[in-house]
Amino acid sequence: MPLSDGQRERIYRLAQGERNYIRFFQYLSQLQHNMKQSAVTVVENHSNLNRKASLDLMRKIADIGVAKVHPGGGGQTSYLAWEEGVDIREVGRSADQPLR
Q1: What does pTM read for this prediction?
Q2: Contacts 24+ apart (CB under 8 A), 31-35
């Protein structure tokens, strides 16, 4: 599923809203391989956000419709499960420039 123009625009606006958010999107754009999941620890490490703020970013990304947040529990951490067909490198590149 390629990203829609609306999703690209929402990703751009989200990334521009917080300096640490753009760091995570830059990480996504530089990956060599597409990934199916991103753990909250990965979000923390690449955004320099604390756990609570990383979970908030994950929820905001999920609201765009490109991923779903799976809550942690039982020794497993929370993670983003990227929607089928979404290339997260494209998600990361969408944060660089607006459509219009």
Answers
A1: 0.92
A2: 31/88, 31/89, 31/92, 34/87, 34/88, 34/89, 35/82, 35/88
